[in-house]
Amino acid sequence: MKLIIAFIRPEVLQDVKLKLYAQELYSMSITNVLGAGQQRGYTEAYRGVQTEVNLLKKLRLEIGVPDDQVDKAIAAITEAARSGQAGDGVIFVLDTVRTYRIRTGEPI
Ligand SMILES: Nc1ncnc2c1ncn2[C@@H]1O[C@H](COP(=O)(O)OP(=O)(O)OP(=O)(O)O)[C@@H](O)[C@H]1O
Ligand SMILES: [Mg+2]
């Protein structure tokens, strides 16, 4: 079992979900985050003062998948989340040590 953690633009969520569903991947957790990549940020007026804003609203998507389904999950996320512009996000794939289904206690 691997844990995929992806940071994506909020506006691509629906498309990412549909692409994952098409691969029969339904389980996921999503949180709102603020993030920065290598962009220098932009300036915006806040209470009349020009302020550099470099933390942008992103979504953190976490998906636990069997090892043999990692590649199709990555492909689904990438296809749906890529605009080609800076800020499209990043995908991390982590090894898990142990995973259990709480309802039954069984390893998954
Ligand atoms: N190394 C990282 N660690 C944690 N989060 C990251 C990392 N890189 C990117 N992110 C997340 O992904 C979001 C988008 O960053 P991204 O890397 O796409 O932007 P960029 O560096 O400006 O562009 P690009 O990498 O396409 O040149 C960030 O706002 C952040 O939430
Ligand atoms: Mg980057």
Polypeptide structure, described:
The protein has 108 residues and is of the alpha+beta class. It has a single domain (2-95), classed as Alpha-Beta Plaits (2-Layer Sandwich), CATH 3.30.70. The longest helix is centred in the C-terminal third of the chain and has 12 residues, at 70-81. It is built from two helices and six strands. The strands form two sheets. Strands 2-5-1-6 form a four-stranded antiparallel β-sheet, covered by helices on one side. It has a two-stranded antiparallel sheet with strand order 3-4. It is 20% helix and 37% strand. The structure holds adenosine-5'-triphosphate and magnesium ion.
Fraction in helix: 10-25%
Task: Report the CATH C-level class.
Answer: Alpha Beta
Small molecules (ligands, ions, cofactors) in the structure: adenosine-5'-triphosphate, magnesium ion
Level-2 CATH architecture = 2-Layer Sandwich
Order of helices and strands: EHEEEEHE
Q: Give the domain tally.
A: 1
| Helical run tally | 2
CATH topology: Alpha-Beta Plaits
Oligomer: single chain
Explain briefly what this protein structure is.
The chain has 108 residues and is α+β, with helices and mostly antiparallel strands. It has helices at 13-22, 70-81; strands at 2-8, 29-35, 42-46, 49-53, 56-65, 90-95. The longest helix is centred in the C-terminal third of the chain and has 12 residues, at 70-81.
Name some characteristics of this structure.
binds adenosine-5'-triphosphate; 37% strand; two-stranded antiparallel ribbon; Alpha-Beta Plaits; four-stranded antiparallel beta sheet; binds magnesium ion; alpha+beta; 108 residues
